[in-house]
Amino acid sequence: MELSFKNKVVVVTGAAGGFGSATARTFADAGAHVVVSDIDTAGAERVAAGLPSAIAITTDVTDPDAVRSLVDAAESAFGGIDVMVNNAGVPHRKCDLIDLDVEAVDWQLAVNVRSVFLGCKYAVPALRRRGGGVIINVASIAAKRPRPGLTVYNATKGAVITLTRGLAGEVAPNVRVNAVNPVVAETGFVRSLTGSDVLPDDLRRDWVSGIPMARTASPQDVANSIFYLASDQAGFLTGVCLDVDGGRSIQ
Question: Using one digit for the tens of pLDDT, what is the confidence trace for 9-35?
Fold first, then answer.
């Protein structure tokens, strides 16, 4: 079954990174106009330059004015928004909760929760102006199967799941709101988590041992799930928080 987004307008935050760039390319390959949003201007421009119909917008997703401007720019460039993907997020360095600085916790709440609130707040009116649309939020399987050393990160992603389910009930039936819950992937997430560009072998073995599919997630695994939940074939799905975890949640 081929899913088409021809002439649809898709906004992806955090689109210079692993999940975001794969998601932007997947929608573009299906015919969408893509708004590539990231705080990393050069990264966003690089991704947008490789897509057939895209613009890059520098966005601090914790800033209400910046997120409002992102939505305005999408409407100005392409006439509206059909899909909003709230993908931007960061982990904190792996450590016990008592060793986390308050400033690090505030940053987690800002990037992982406040940004999703803002993306939804400003996207919903734009989606309604198009007669309806879809919001996809990127949470984490850590919200359901939390690991030690990531307690605050886990909690922020739990908030994204609850926000998704609550908002789905508020804005139905014309706007659908779903989420994906990825397991660990070897993207920029690893750098923020461990300080290294590569997941250490011992940590990889430990984490993969709890994943029945015996590997970490790829950006394309996550992009494919976002793509499906945004499609018309998922038109009766709202409030769904899809585990993209290779079976970790059943262990």
Answer: 999 999 999 999 999 999 999 999 999
- Print the domain residue range for 119: 9-184+218-235
What's the N-to-C CA distance of the chain in angstroms? 31
Catalytic residue among 5, 27, 122, 153: 153
Quick one: pLDDT at residue 174? 97
The answer as to whether 146 is a domain residue is yes
Q: Is residue 226 part of a domain?
A: yes
DSSP string, 178-201: EEEEE--BSSHHHHHHHSSSS--H
H or E element, residue 124: helix 115-129
Structure tokens at 102: 């308050």
Q: What is the CATH number of the domain that holds 19?
A: 3.40.50.720
- pLDDT, residue 204, reads 76
Q: Locate tokens 């760039």: which residue?
A: 21
**Measured distance CA(21)–CA(12) in Å, rounded:** 8
Q: What is the number of domains present in the chain?
A: 1
Inter-residue contact 143 to 89 (CB < 8 Å): no
User: In whole numbers, what is the pLDDT of the chain averaged over residues?
Assistant: 94
The rounded distance, in Å, linking the Cα atoms of 161 and 197 is 28
Q: What pLDDT is stored for residue 205 in this prediction?
A: 84
**Does 228 qualify as catalytic in the annotation?**
no
pLDDT for res 2: 64
